Amino acid sequence: MSPASVPTINAHGAAIPAVGYGTMLFPEPERAVELILHALECGYRHIDTARKYGTEQWVGEGIRASGVPREDIWVTTKVTEENAQADDFARSVDTSLETMGLDHVDLLLIHWPQPNVPLAETLGALAKAKRDGLARNIGVSNFTIPLLDEATAKCPEPLVTNQIEYHTYINQDRLIAACRKHGLLITCHAPLARGAMLDDPVIVEIAAAHNKTPAQVALRWTVQQPGIGVVPRALEFSEIEENIAIFDFALSDMEMGRIGQLKERNLRVIDPEVRRPVWDEA
Ligand SMILES: NC(=O)c1ccc[n+]([C@@H]2O[C@H](COP(=O)([O-])OP(=O)(O)OC[C@H]3O[C@@H](n4cnc5c(N)ncnc54)[C@H](OP(=O)(O)O)[C@@H]3O)[C@@H](O)[C@H]2O)c1
After folding, report:
1. Among the residues of 194-268, which ranges form H helices?
2. Domain coordinates of the chain in residue numbers?
3. Residues lining ligand 1, judged by CB closer than 6 Å?
4. Which ligand 1 atom sits closest to the C-alpha of 23?
């Protein structure tokens, strides 16, 4: 198997591989390293982790085991909302780097908004991590339109992305427009809606027409839109391979439109009660 070649999405000098490998909810350590290693062998050059996931150590081990030069791999990690105060934030970044055995990440994100800490304080800590060379790029995750307006106004360094839930089953049109207005890329988490759309008749039909799988069509629909990347998680080698093999076909305008209508379902699969912001209306 030859490694896949993946295009990048670009903003503020950042070139993020449009498909990354998500590492949330992972199995036991030995298998975790094996999975990350397999992703790198298939051609993934973007790994998405977070302090909260408990997978940073395995990401570091997988990268070292792969022999792929560090500078060829885009590593994203995130600071949880429990560490939104500046001192805690800085400690979290240091711990992430130490855990991964890396001296910097390519992208550092505020994982979830924290209403109890002034956003300017957290943004200051985020920007400081960049200025100190610990993060090449910075961004946010799960930010709504009002939070994005505030963050882009207050952050001393440019934000490159908002990592949000986006897939064929959710309407994020207004939030995506806001990201674009502010010059941010969109990184989609849960891009397969944890599998919810994989037996949708429209997706199944279009997949058959292209001789692709439903997952490939769902991911292709997403990355075929400008400035949008995805970080699917898969625990089967075959699915890891499948999810990156989406750049050798294209959906027609009509197919894009048909799949685009599925958003009316407005299914949000990542909606944790303790930290959800007031989501934007569709
Ligand atoms: N910023 C945030 O707050 C946030 C929140 C959630 C997720 N994330 C990031 O986004 C990543 C992905 O999100 P997610 O894991 O929640 O959901 P997801 O990627 O939408 O879905 C993962 C599910 O889809 C299945 N799957 C993957 N590829 C498949 C394929 N080719 N065919 C059939 N089924 C397939 C997986 O099955 P198996 O597991 O059985 O292989 C798994 O059950 C996470 O790992 C994390 O890095 C970020």
Report:
1. 201-210, 214-223, 237-244, 253-260
2. 22-265
3. 22-24, 48, 111, 141-142, 163, 189-195, 198, 213, 215, 231-236, 239, 242-243, 270
4. 45
Using 50, 70 and 90 to split pLDDT, how confident is the model at 20? Answer: very high
| Residue closest to 167 by CA, chosen among 279, 22, 267, 272 | 267
Determine whether 142 is exposed, middle or buried from the number of CB atoms within 10 Å of its CB (0-12, 13-18, 19+): buried
Tell me the pLDDT band of 2, cut-offs 50, 70 and 90.
low
Q: Mark whether 53 is an active-site residue.
A: yes
Report how far ligand 1's centroid is from the alpha carbon of 128 (Å).
Answer: 31
Six token digits for residue 39: 């992703």
Superfamily designation of domain 22-265: NADP-dependent oxidoreductase domain (3.20.20.100)
Strand 8-11, strand 14-17: pairing:
antiparallel
Question: Do β-strands 185-189 and 228-230 pair in parallel, antiparallel, or remain unpaired?
Answer: parallel
Angle between helices 214-223 and 201-210 (to 10 degrees): 90
Q: What is the DSSP letter of 88?
A: H
- Tell me the two tokens of residue 269: 């699969």
Interval 195-222: pLDDT, tens: 999 999 999 999 999 999 999 999 999 9
- Token pair, residue 177, equals 């427009």
Neighbours of 116 (CB within 10 A): 7
Structure tokens at 183: 């010059």
Entry pTM: 0.98
